[in-house]
Specification:
The protein is of the alpha+beta class and 269 residues long. The protein is built from nine helices and nine strands. It has one domain: q2cbj1_9rhob like domain (Jelly Rolls, Sandwich), CATH 2.60.120.620. The protein has a six-stranded antiparallel β-sheet. The radius of gyration is 18 Å and the shape is globular. The structure holds 2-oxoglutaric acid.
Length: 269
Amino acid sequence: MTLAKATAGQLPAPTRDRAQMLADIAEHGLAIVPDVLTGDTLARTRDALYRAAESDRARGREQRLALDYADDASNQRVANVLSRDPLFEDLAFHPLAIDLLKEVVGWPALLSNISANITGPGGGEMVLHADQLFVPEPWPRAPQGMNVGWCLDDFTAENGATRVVPGSHRLNRMPQGEEQQLDGVAVEAPAGSIVVFESRLWHKTGNNVTGNETRAGVFAWYSSYIYRSQENWFLSLRPEIRQFATEEMLVLLGYKACGFGVVNGASIV
Ligand SMILES: O=C(O)CCC(=O)C(=O)O
């Protein structure tokens, strides 16, 4: 696979068909699924995120991640949204997300983190990357993780929609040198859609060139169980989540021994 061939790809059309989603992820590296959140649920989830972001700003806990965003003051990240409001449990453990995860990455798997990126007017773009950047190259031939981006606002080319290089997952490596300057294609999608991308797809937050719009996205990043999760759930999980968790949630949060993290040698795999 040459760079030119891999990066000449198109975005897949939005689909609600499960088989098509899996085909799109295999072919393009991503699938776009509309109407996963709708009506009141979408509105309440969006409100919960903006409330958390506002509270972080008011308390001086705001996270900017200068490394990602070249020190601009317009984009805000809200870490560990799972522990901020029960509504985010419904995103992290959404049946469609977990079903696709089992197909794309396999099972058991971990929820590695779930955080929000809110772009703001004038906000700069992120460095082009693949999410499995911590895996030493040469990479295995299969994705080591999967990301589910929840669009809580309409994602548009102007407000910083995630930009992707369709087909780049087939290069099976990180972007190098000048490849990091590739523009990619904006994944435009209405609020309530999810954008599911496998961990080798090159992508970034886009520039927000609007004068007054924000773009809220929640990114649930899952990995194979052989990698340590980014968020340390043992320290940062809101206790009620574990208290009422299903067996599947406990696996995703690393509370079930899966070959690693065993208790006296006992494990479910
Ligand atoms: O904000 C976005 O659109 C993309 C976020 C992203 O790439 C990341 O958090 O790794």
